[in-house]
């Protein structure tokens, strides 16, 4: 579904969303999404401030915040891994192939951009400020826009499909497999 269609259907999709309680795997994934979205909001604010800056000295505490945000985005790897190795194959077993494949392609690009951002934030002294700024703005703006859209699609389309087609036994197996993979450093308890 393209972004224009999503925007038109956004309210309808959200209003029809099936809600689940902890410890359901979809509940956990959606709670992690909320924290990822909080970090994307912080990143968006950082990007806006960075646009006005001309040197590292002007960044002050923003550099620490950028490191923290980049760290949390990279730490979402277990989230993606649980989707790719457990949820997506379960959907494919029900002949739901294209949505998981599209989400997986998105994940691959997000990994690349998150790693770029983390490297920049962690090793900023290896760069001159203008190159650093350009790269952070590029990777950051991409993540803020595209990861936000991706999360909306997962929460309101992919996960909703999963809740309709997977049975209770499958969800129990998904939960067991998710527990084996592990969770993010920021995954809420419950």
Notes on the protein architecture:
The protein is an all-alpha fold and 190 residues long. It has helices spanning 3-15, 25-50, 56-59, 61-74, 77-92, 98-122, 129-165, 168-181. The protein has one domain (25-181): nmb1532 protein domain like (Four Helix Bundle (Hemerythrin (Met), subunit A)). Helices cover 78% and strands 0% of the residues. The longest helix has 37 residues, at 129-165. 26% of the residues are buried.
List the defining traits of the structure above:
190 residues, mainly alpha, Four Helix Bundle (Hemerythrin (Met), subunit A)
Quick synopsis:
The chain is mainly alpha-helical and 190 residues long. It contains 8 helices and no strands.
Which helices and strands appear, and what pairs or packs with what?
Elements: H1 3-15, H2 25-50, H3 56-59, H4 61-74, H5 77-92, H6 98-122, H7 129-165, H8 168-181
Helix pairs in contact: 1-7, 2-4, 2-7, 4-6, 5-6, 5-8, 6-7
- The chain-level structural class is mainly alpha
Distance between the termini: 32 Å
Per CATH, which architecture?
Up-down Bundle
CATH-wise, what's the superfamily?
nmb1532 protein domain like
- Cα radius of gyration in angstroms: 18 Å
Count up the domains.
1
Please identify the top-level CATH class: Mainly Alpha
């Amino acid at each position: 579904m393209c972004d224009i269609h999503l925007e038109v259907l956004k309210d309808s999709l959200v209003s029809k969303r099936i809600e689940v309680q902890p410890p359901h795997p979809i509940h956990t994934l959606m709670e992690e999404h909320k924290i990822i979205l909080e970090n994307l909001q912080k990143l968006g604010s950082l990007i806006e401030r960075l646009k006005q800056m001309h040197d590292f000295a002007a960044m002050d505490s923003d550099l620490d915040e950028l490191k923290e945000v980049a760290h949390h985005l990279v730490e979402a790897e277990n989230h993606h891994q649980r989707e790719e190795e457990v949820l997506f194959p379960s959907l494919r077993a029900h002949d739901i192939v294209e949505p998981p494949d599209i989400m997986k392609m998105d994940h691959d690009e997000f990994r690349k951009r998150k790693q770029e951002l983390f490297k920049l934030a962690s090793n900023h002294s290896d760069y001159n400020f203008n190159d650093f700024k350009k790269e952070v703005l590029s990777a950051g703006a991409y993540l803020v826009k595209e990861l936000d859209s991706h999360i909306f699609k997962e929460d309101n389309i992919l996960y909703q499909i999963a809740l309709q087609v997977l049975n209770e036994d499958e969800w129990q197996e998904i939960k067991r497999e998710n527990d084996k993979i592990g969770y993010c450093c920021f995954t809420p308890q419950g």
